[in-house]
Write a structure and sequence with these properties.
Residues 74-84 have a biased composition (Polar residues). It is a multi-pass membrane protein. ANK repeats lie at residues 355-387, 389-410, 461-482. This is Ankyrin repeat-containing protein bda1. The chain folds into 4 domains: 2-91; 113-271 and 565-682, no CATH class; 345-422, Serine Threonine Protein Phosphatase 5, Tetratricopeptide repeat (Alpha Horseshoe); 424-459 and 462-496 and 499-533, Alpha Horseshoe (Serine Threonine Protein Phosphatase 5, Tetratricopeptide repeat), CATH 1.25.40. Helix content is 61%, strand content 1%. It has 34 helices and 2 strands. The chain has helices spanning 2-9, 11-14, 17-24, 27-31, 43-48, 54-65, 81-90, 113-116, 118-137, 175-200, 208-236, 239-244, 246-296, 299-308, 325-332, 335-344, 359-366, 369-378, 393-400, 403-412, 427-433, 437-444, 451-454, 465-471, 475-483, 485-489, 501-506, 512-523, 539-547, 566-569, 571-590, 621-646, 654-682, 685-737; strands at residues 148-149, 161-162. A two-stranded antiparallel ribbon has the order 1-2. Helix 32 packs antiparallel against helix 33. The chain is elongated, with a radius of gyration of 42 Å.
C-alpha cells in the first residue's frame, strides 16, 4: 500500500489522469489519500506546486471530488521543494539512471577511506614492520652461546653440533616448523613494508586499482602476522601442554582464521557483484551508444553494435530509457535508420514510451511522411494506439496540419476519424482548436453526411465544433462549417450552458471579428436561445478560485536523531590502539615472560631447550595455560579490529559497528586479564599475598568499568528488543483489524 500512496504523490511529475482515477477507485488508497510525504504534503499540495495547465485543473477536480484535502501548514514549504519538483520535471527521458537497486547495496563502502586513513595506515604498517623485524635481531628461543657437540643432556644437540650464535629453534627436529615461522614472518614483514612503500610513493589512492593493491597488501600482512604468532607459540610451548590443551591454546587463532575466510568471502562476493555490474554497465554503454546513433541517424554505428551484440535490440526493454531508438529516429526524421531498425525488429513499431506514445505518434506530429509509411508497413495497428491523453497519431497529425500524414493514416484505417478522446473531443475539435482549416476539410469530407458525428459535443462544456470556432473567432472555419449541410442543420444546438453559437459570440469581447461572425451566423439562420440571461459566473472566476488555494503542511517535527558515526570518525585512533595492543601481545611469542630453557635443567622432568620455563612448573601450569589463552584472545581480537578496519567494511552499517565494538571490548578485557596473569606468574610466592590486593586493585577497577558498560549495552539491547516486539504487535493488530 505505501508504494501506491507514493505513486499518488508523484502525480505532479507526470500528471497521469487515468492512473489517478484508477488509484482513487481502490478503497484502501482512497482511505489513505491524505497521507503526507516527507515534506508534509498531501497529493493535492504536491499538485499545487506543479505548472498551471489544463491537466492540473482536471486532476485538482478529481482529487477534491475524492475527498483529498490540503495539509494545514501551507507556509512551511522547504526552500528546496520547488527545486526538487523542477528537477524532476526537467529530467531528460532518455537519461539512464546511474543508481541501481541491488541486494548487495549494503555491502557498498562509500567514501575514499584509504586516502583519509593514509597516516593511520602508515603507522600500523610501521609498527607491524617493527615487530616482524624483531625476530631477525632477537629470535624466539634465543641463540646458542657456545658450541655444543653431541651433548647428551640436550636433546637438540645429541647427534649434531649446535654452533654458537645460531638459533636454538633450528635444532631438535623442529626445522620444518621453524622454516614455516621464518617464511610467514618474512611475508608479513615484506607486505607491511610494501604498504609503507605504496603510501609514500605518491600513487593515486583514489584509483580503484591501487586501492585494491593496498588493501590486499594490508590483509596479507595481518594474515601472515597471525600465522607467525601461532607458529611461534607452537615452537615455544612444551610438547605436553601443546598436545593436552591445543584446543584452548589455539582456539582464538582459529577464530581469526575463520574471520579471514569470512572477509575473503565478503570480497569475493563484492568482486563477483562488480563483474556483474561491469557486464551490465557494458550493455548499458552499448544501448546508450545506440540511442546516440539514433539521434544522429548513424547507420555505421548501428551495424557495428548489431555485429557486436546481435540481441541488443531485444535488451532495450530491460533498460531505464523512456523511449526506444525507434522513437528517437522517428521523431528526428532519420528515414534510413528507421527502416533499418524496423527490418531488424518490426515489433519496435508498437513499443510505447513513458507517455504511452508509439513511434508513429512522434512521426505523425512532426510530419515525417516516409517514416509514417514505413511504420504503417511494419504494423498498421500502430495508428490505433492511444497515448496517455487518449490521442492517436491522427490527432497529432491533425493538430499540426500535416495533411499528407493524415491522408496516409486515413488510408490505413478508414474509421480512424471517429475516435473520440477522453474529454469527448473528436479529431474535428482539435482541427478547430489548432486552426487547421485544410486538415479539417480533408477530415470532414468522408463524414459530411454524418450529422451526429459532425455535431458531437465535448465533455467540458458540451460545445460542438461550431461553438468552438465561434469562441476562437475563426472566421474561415466558421464559413466552411456553415457550408456543410449537416453542420448547418445543427447550428442552433445548445451547449451545457444553454447557449447557441450566436449566444457564445454575444459573450465575447466586442471587436471587428465579432460583428463579422455575427453577420455570418445570422445569415446562416443561427438564432439565440431563450435562456441566454441565465449565464452562470464566468469559468475564469471558478478557475481563479481553485488557483487561490495554497498548499498546507502540518507542523510536525520528527524527533531528533543522533546520527554521529563515531566509529568512522575514530577509525584512525582505533587502528592505532589495536596495532599497539597487537604489538604488545605479539611480544610473548618472541620474548616470553621468564624466558626459555637453554639447557635440559629440570630435576623430575625433561625441560626441552627452546621451550618456556613457566611451562614445566607443576604449580604454574594452569596459570601458564590461562596466560596463553588470554594473550591469544587479546592478540586475535586486536588483529581482528585492524582487519575489519582495513578490509573495507561499511562502518555505517549497524551490524559491522556492533562486531567492531565487541571485538574492541574483548581486546581490552583480555588484555587486562593477561596483565594480571603475567604478574601472578612472576611475583614470588612469599610476596604474592602481600602485593596481591594492591596489584589487583587497578585491574578490579577496570573489570568493574567493563561490567558497567556491558550492563548499559544489555539494557539498551533489551529496550530495543521491547520496541521491536511492541511494533510487531501493533502491526499484527493493525493487519487483523484490516
Amino acid at each position: 500500500m505505501p508504494k501506491i500512496i507514493i505513486d499518488l504523490h508523484l502525480i505532479h511529475k507526470h500528471c497521469n489522469t487515468q492512473i489517478v482515477k484508477f488509484l482513487l477507485s481502490i478503497s484502501k488508497v482512497k482511505e489513505e489519500a491524505n497521507a503526507l510525504n516527507w515534506m508534509n504534503f498531501t497529493a493535492l499540495d504536491v499538485l499545487e506546486h506543479s505548472p498551471k495547465d489544463f491537466k492540473r485543473f482536471t486532476l485538482q477536480n478529481i482529487l477534491m471530488d475524492a475527498g483529498v484535502e490540503r495539509a494545514n501548514n501551507q507556509n512551511n514549504l522547504p526552500p528546496s521543494s520547488a527545486t526538487m519538483i523542477s528537477h524532476h520535471e526537467s529530467g531528460k527521458p532518455t537519461q539512464i539512471s546511474k543508481q541501481r537497486s541491488s541486494q548487495f547495496l549494503y555491502l557498498k563502502h562509500k567514501g575514499n577511506w584509504i586516502q583519509e586513513m593514509r597516516g593511520a595506515l602508515m603507522m600500523v604498517a610501521t609498527v607491524i614492520t617493527t615487530i616482524t623485524y624483531q625476530p631477525a635481531l632477537s629470535p624466539p628461543g634465543g641463540v646458542w652461546q657456545t658450541d655444543i657437540k653431541n651433548y647428551t643432556e640436550i636433546n637438540a644437540c645429541r647427534n649434531t653440533t649446535c654452533k654458537a650464535g645460531t638459533l636454538v629453534l633450528a635444532y631438535g627436529g623442529y626445522e620444518d616448523m621453524f622454516l614455516q615461522f621464518l617464511l610467514c614472518n618474512s611475508i608479513a614483514f615484506s607486505a607491511s613494508l610494501s604498504v609503507i612503500f605504496l603510501l609514500i610513493s605518491g600513487v593515486p589512492l583514489k584509483n580503484n586499482f591501487f586501492m585494491v593493491i593496498l588493501t590486499l597488501a594490508m590483509c596479507t600482512t595481518l594474515t601472515f602476522l597471525s600465522f607467525t604468532y601461532v607458529l611461534a607459540f607452537r615452537l615455544l610451548i612444551p610438547e605436553e601442554i601443546r598436545q593436552k590443551h591445543k584446543v584452548k591454546v589455539f582456539f582464538p587463532s582459529s577464530v581469526l582464521v575463520w574471520m579471514i575466510l569470512l572477509v575473503l568471502l565478503f570480497h569475493t562476493i563484492r568482486f563477483l557483484y562488480w563483474l556483474r555490474k561491469m557486464e551490465i554497465r557494458l550493455e548499458e554503454d552499448n544501448i546508450t551508444e545506440l540511442h546516440k546513433a539514433s539521434e544522429n541517424g548513424c547507420m555505421v554505428t548501428l551495424h557495428r553494435l548489431i555485429q557486436k551484440d546481435p540481441h541488443i535490440l531485444e535488451k532495450i526493454s530491460l533498460t531505464p530509457f523512456n523511449e526506444t531508438p525507434l522513437h528517437i529516429s522517428a521523431l528526428l526524421g532519420h528515414v534510413d535508420f528507421t527502416r533499418a531498425l524496423l527490418a531488424l525488429k518490426p515489433q519496435l513499431a508498437m513499443d510505447l514510451d513513458f507517455h504511452k506514445r508509439c513511434p508513429l505518434h512522434l512521426a505523425s506530429a512532426n510530419g515525417h511522411v516516409e517514416i509514417v509509411h514505413a511504420l504503417l508497413r511494419a504494423n498498421e495497428d500502430a495508428c490505433l494506439v492511444y497515448d496517455q491523453d487518449g490521442r492517436t497519431p491522427l490527432h497529432y497529425a491533425a493538430m499540426r496540419g500535416n495533411i499528407e500524414v493524415v491522408k496516409a493514416l486515413i488510408f490505413a484505417k478508414r474509421d480512424l476519424t471517429r475516435v473520440v478522446l477522453d474529454g469527448g473531443e473528436t479529431v474535428l475539435h482539435l482541427c478547430v482548436k489548432y486552426n487547421q482549416l485544410e486538415t479539417l476539410k480533408l477530415l470532414v469530407e468522408p463524414v459530411k453526411d454524418d450529422g451526429e458525428f459532425l455535431n458531437s459535443k465535448d465533455h467540458d462544456g458540451g460545445n460542438t465544433i461550431l461553438h468552438i470556432a465561434v469562441m476562437l473567432k475563426q472566421i474561415e472555419i466558421v464559413k466552411f462549417l456553415l457550408l456543410v449541410s449537416k453542420v448547418k442543420e445543427g447550428a442552433n444546438s445548445l451547449n451545457w450552458m444553454g447557449f447557441t453559437a450566436l449566444d457564445v459570440l454575444e459573450h465575447s469581447p466586442k471587436d471587428f471579428k465579432r460583428f463579422t461572425l455575427q453577420n455570418i451566423l445570422m445569415d446562416a439562420g443561427v438564432e439565440r436561445a431563450n435562456n441566454q440571461n441565465n449565464l452562470p459566473p464566468p469559468s475564469a472566476t471558478m478557475i481563479g478560485h481553485h488557483e487561490s488555494g495554497n498548499p498546507t503542511q502540518l507542523s510536525r517535527q520528527r524527533p531528533l536523531k543522533h546520527k554521529s558515526n563515531w566509529i568512522k570518525e575514530l577509525r584512525g585512533a582505533l587502528m592505532v590502539v589495536a596495532t599497539v595492543i597487537t604489538t604488545i601481545t605479539y611480544q610473548p611469542a618472541l620474548s616470553p615472560p621468564n624466558g626459555v630453557w637453554l639447557t635440559q635443567a629440570c630435576l623430575n622432568a625433561t625441560c626441552d631447550a627452546r621451550t618456556w620455563a613457566l611451562g614445566f612448573h607443576v604449580n604454574y601450569r594452569n596459570l601458564f595455560l590461562y596466560f596463553l589463552v588470554s594473550n591469544s584472545i587479546t592478540f586475535t581480537a586486536s588483529l581482528s579490529v585492524i582487519f575489519l578496519l582495513i578490509s573495507g567494511f561499511p562502518l555505517k552499517n549497524k551490524f559491522f559497528t556492533v562486531i567492531l565494538t565487541l571485538a574492541m571490548c574483548t581486546t581490552l578485557t583480555f588484555l587486562g586479564t593477561t596483565y594480571v596473569l603475567a604478574f601472578i606468574l612472576m611475583i614470588p610466592e612469599k610476596y604474592r599475598q602481600e602485593l596481591g590486593e594492591l596489584t589487583l586493585l587497578p585491574t578490579k577497577a577496570l573489570a568493574y568499568l567493563i561490567l558497567f558498560v556491558l550492563l548499559i549495552y544489555i539494557i539498551l539491547f533489551l529496550i530495543w528488543l521491547l520496541r521491536m516486539i511492541f511494533k510487531f504487535i501493533l502491526r499484527c493488530a493493525k493487519a487483523l483489524s484490516c
